Amino acid sequence: MAAFHPLIILAAGLLTAIALIIVLRLNAFLSLITASMVVSLMSPGVPAEKISRVAEAFGATAGKIGIVIALAAITGSCLIESGAADRIVRFFVDRTGEKRCEVSLMASGFLLSIPVFYDTVFYLLLPLARSMHVQTKKNYLLLVLCMGAGASITHSLVPPTPGPLIIAGTLGVGVGAMILGGLLVSVPTAFVIYFFIRFYAARFSIPMREYKAAGPEAGPAPDGRMPGLAVSLLPVLYPLLAISAHTLMSMPSGGENADPHLLQVRAFAALLGDANAAMLVSAAMAILVWIRTKHPGRKAFRDSMENALMSAGVIILITSAGGAFGAMLKAAQLGPAVQGLFAAGAGGNGGTAMLFMGFLMAFLMKFSQGSSTVAMITSSAMIAALVPARSVLGFHPVYLAAAIGFGAQCGNWMNDSGFWLFAKMGGFTELETLKTWTVTVSLMAVCGFLITWLFSGILPLI
């Protein structure tokens, strides 16, 4: 079979993935793995190897991120079960007081969404937001928007939550660099969007309405049944600190002629800061906190671990299929073809053009099929085939990863489960959700992208 032009292959792969997800409503794994095979069959190569190389790329991606995602799921589950997540929330509430209780919700969502899935954070914090509204008479919309926005930012920017972890692996960005870069752009974005929410929520008068939950709303656990603050924070902070320390210690400084003690420290930091090792320690900490606090029986422990791993398994399958999709686009020689177009039309602004392309591609995928994670997987896979050398790009590729992460948050509307989570759990109508949640998250994404663009120019990190 003769190979097609790379841009035709890109169009065929993209249309296949979108059509299967949106039109036929197939699972994202089936859609992406099918698109990968279509792209591989149309690309150059030995015919007998065109399917096997898809499987090889799938396995290579799973090897990079599978353990981390599985352990992150266990850590998040144990933080919820033990009451550690609730303890962290109460810490922020106590520090901000009633006058700034929306800040405590935003900070709690921001921190908890790093190791815990977004939906779980929303379920955890919503009863607290409702309780705060009753006690303080604060604008209910203000509380829920701050809560959701805080969780959304780190959900797409800071590992080990799956989305940014996937982007980092696909673009060749170290996990530590993704953590530091993600925090660099997400913190100022959170400040900007907080002041917007305060202004915007005041323009609406939406009451808190009852909603039908699966069961009675669980109140917060008594203080005596929750772990202490230090042990609650440790499973969250340890992997961030260990991986970041490894990244900082790996920066060039003397090479092989460096002080022997420094080399030993670097080796030790590399061991502890490996993402798999750091998340294993984090999961062990979270499990121990849960066991010491709640003393679960063997069946409860086993069921909780299995549920967490089943959730992680779906994400690993989708992620690995996205990695295979990106690898097949590279096999199609898409990079040289698109870089040629950029060289002809970018006029020396190729790095900026790549940022805009990453954001726009992620936005289109998000808007068309709804899932932020799928948008991040697909967009980063396509962008990875186009990324030039850092000297040509002009900045560290972590900024490109951040642009994709923000793009995957833009355009949150009715085809996204997060939209319905906000609407139904929060007690808002569809129109109210479009006017409030969709506008807030989309503006947050645009602001975050502009901040990323600004940092890429003033702090290129190369």
Protein model, in words:
This protein is mainly α and about 450 residues long. Helix content is about 75%, strand content about 0%. The chain has 20 helices and no strands. The longest helix is centred in the C-terminal third of the chain and has 34 residues, at about 300-330. The chain is globular. Residues about 210-220 have low confidence and may be disordered.
What's the topology here?
Blueprint lengths: L5 H18 L4 H15 L9 H31 L1 H13 L4 H12 L5 H19 L3 H18 L4 H10 L3 H27 L27 H21 L10 H13 L2 H20 L3 H34 L2 H12 L4 H20 L2 H13 L5 H4 L4 H10 L9 H10 L3 H29 L4
Helix pairs in contact: 1-2, 2-13, 3-8, 3-12, 3-13, 4-5, 4-10, 5-6, 5-7, 6-7, 6-19, 7-9, 7-20, 8-16, 8-18, 9-10, 9-18, 9-20, 10-11, 10-12, 13-16, 15-16, 15-18, 16-18, 18-20, 19-20
What is the β-strand count? Answer: 0
- Which blocks of ≥5 consecutive residues have pLDDT under 50? 212-220
Report the principal-axis shape: globular
Radius of gyration: 22 Å
* Main β-sheet description: none
The figure for the number of domains is 1
Please report the number of helical segments.
Answer: 20
Question: What can be said about this structure in brief?
Answer:
This protein has 20 helices and no strands. The chain has helices at residues 6-23, 28-42, 52-82, 84-96, 101-112, 118-136, 140-157, 162-171, 175-201, 229-249, 260-272, 275-294, 298-331, 334-345, 350-369, 372-384, 390-393, 398-407, 417-426, 430-458.
